[in-house]
Design goal:
Number of helices: 3
Shape: elongated
Structural class: mainly alpha
Number of strands: 0
Strand content: under 5%
Order of helices and strands: HHH
Largest sheet: none
Distance between the termini: 43 Å
């Protein structure tokens, strides 16, 4: 999907540097994908801390299993 956005030059250069991309569009795309992954991981961590998942056994029991 094409879209028009305004980003100041300094921020865009930082995004390109941090993503390792030399072109603007791939840099922005990569940054957005990374942002979404991090937000999902953060939400998953919150759900785990709040006990949203019921795992059988304790952490020690799970670590002792030979998987």
């Amino acid at each position: 999907m094409r879209l028009t956005i305004e980003i100041d030059d300094a921020t865009l250069e930082q995004v390109m540097e941090l993503t390792g991309e030399r072109k603007k569009s791939p840099a922005i795309s990569k940054a957005v994908v990374e942002y979404v992954k991090r937000r999902k991981a953060k939400e998953f961590g919150r759900l785990i801390r709040e006990g949203a998942f019921d795992y059988p056994g304790t952490n020690e029991e799970i670590e002792r299993q030979d998987i």
